Fold this protein.
Amino acid sequence: MTKKALARKNTCGNTQSFYEHAENVANISISNSQFKSTSKLIAYLHDLGKLSDDFQNYIINGGERGSVIHSWQGAFLANELFQNTSAIALLLKEIIAFCTTAHHNYLANGLSTDGTADLFAKICDVENEKYSFKNIKSKLTTDEKLALISIFNDAEKELSSLLEKINGVYSDRNSANFALGLVVKYLYSCLVDADRLDAYLFDNKEKFVPSKPKWDDLIGLFEKNISDFSSIEKIDKIRNSISEKCKAAAEKETGIYQLSVPTGGGKTLSSLRFALHHCKEKEKKRIIYVIPYLSITEQTAKSIRSILSLSEDNNVVFEHHSNIIEPLDEKESEIRKLSASRWDSPIIITTMVQFLESVMSSKGGKLRKFSHMADSVIIFDEVQSAPIKTIHCFNEVVSFLSKILNSTIVLCSATQPTLEHTQRKNLLISETPNLIHCKEDFKDIKRTSVSPLLKKDISGASDFIVKKAESNGNCLVIVNTKNSALQIFSLIKEKNTSFKVFHLSTSMCPMHRMEIIEDIRKGLDENKKIICISTQLIEAGVDISFSCVIRSTAGLDSIAQAAGRCNRNGESALPKTVYTFELEDENLEKLPDIKSGKETTLDILLCADNNIDLLGEETMDLFYKKYFSGKSSQMDYPAGKYDTTVYSMLSSNNYGRQNYQKNTGNNFPHFIAQAFHSASSSFSVIEKGTVPVVVFYGNSDDLIEKYKKQPPELVTKEKLKILKDLQKYSVQLYDWQIRKLSQEQSLTILDEQSGIILLDEKYYSKESGVVLEILPNSLIV
């Protein structure tokens, strides 16, 4: 391909040749991809349109961004140049088309649910003058065309082997089709990641250098530090036993495993120990730790940094809280596209929200992370937190990651849900699924018992909380909604008790929550009188122990997690009581899984005798049986306006096929029928319509000032680091909150390049986080 043509020019006037960019993207793709020939071919074809005279004129003389189309011509050339008409070759051409045409935007639908197939129609529009395809073909030499044909032949063989593997792994047609869609997403992810990384490296005058984690060094630090842990108390000995078993399990083959350990059993560090040794044994690239979306990433990160003797500013552990700037399309500024988080660190800590919304998305900025999930150990802490509606899609994704992309999956829970026994039975769990066996370790230890109480209103609950705090010295209260937490917090504050009262919710930025939890932990260690009112974010991933825990009624799995914050370290030889009661006037309409879990628990309590052990294995099995009952269609994720499900759109898409047949009288003639974009636009783990804003808390103002001092038009390494650091100071707000705050003129934009929204400091409280009314000065951070 001609070395004179240009691929880009930055604001400093520096240019990069088309040839250099194509080679760089190919090399980066190859370094990441499981399917190297296919990724190499897609990389060489993705920017083919930049060879046109129109695009070269745009690069040299400037013009409106996106005014010259350059992403479709690679698909045109693939259809024309590669003459093989075998089924594998035709499928490969379709994959090339999906990836190249979408690399600045999002994956299109192969077949929309209404039966239209716009992408395939556009690929036939090759004669349209806006594409300058004849002009582009004239720029390619015979040798270059032959080289592309040779790579295509290699990619065809590679794809043939992949399809043979898929057919061997999946007995169900829907699962096999879902896997085919994930192949497209994975190859697209490899392209987008390589393309955007090369753009960043070009701006910063750097070269791509593949990195390899130093597992031996990390293992040495881990083993040294864990040897200093106490083994005096009974619970310490149990945790040590579990940890040793996890270390021994590292020799297991790549697969999907369950790690079932009661709360307080040390799952975080034990699973990390397994992961470190397994990565070394099986040559994995990274560890991805996925925690519940209402938990706290920074707490887990702090534990992992500590056991690995890492400073907060290190290149090993990356905490992904949220994308405070998410690229939407090719018209976005470069910094919005390039700063979308790249999961290339040895250890990634993220949330279930980020994981699911990345793999289920059609957008390049989100799917970029998918390429880095291959050849990994992926630990799902408290896997029972996966929303009901996502379960069948979740099962397909983790099965694909393990069986096709060679990742080991660990499903951690004290209350292991039976995900492998849902109606689709599409979790391809290992034949011997238990990573370890530890039931015997806990047979002689009972730290808590659960006492169900009658329904209480906010006032009665507040009185009861104070009473129990006074008799126990401290008390943790967990409720289902932010509104309930704030009401109870305010009432107890008004009582002027001798207790220090804390509040925790997702209205606070991550750094704020972490500091409050540290204050609570320190106070408990010093036997101070503390009451904490929290939403369920404290239930998992937080190593903290209260003498008394009160939980508003929810699913038994949540009650068990709450109980894990009581007498956690066996401080009391006798079991401590965890109280649960239904809270009056609690609106759970927008929290369907919590509502369903609560109803299931109440149903069990209604039929149970007074001696039932609510945390017992039999009761928990009964809970999940009732909880999952009748929800098979819900587990496919109903897609509302499309009259089908997300699962169907991403697998066989029978609804779209039927409509295509009605519209045309013919069967759909292509291989890739997945409605990628429609499924993506329908899917969200939590309610759609939230916007991230950065609040003024702690160090955020210093970071903002540092950002403003950076060169305004360049995408620098320092800028990207600042944007990652600002994630710790972000809060998700609903659209109605944004509208109200906009009316108060309390929102500003950091700059057009980043698009980050800043919230006026007057609307952030040191006690409760974001508020919608200006507070008295005494409450302002």
Q: What stands out?
A: Residues 170 and 176 are 6 Å apart (CA to CA). The two ends are 58 Å apart (CA to CA). Residues 775-781 have pLDDT under 50 and may be disordered. The longest helix spans residues 173-203.
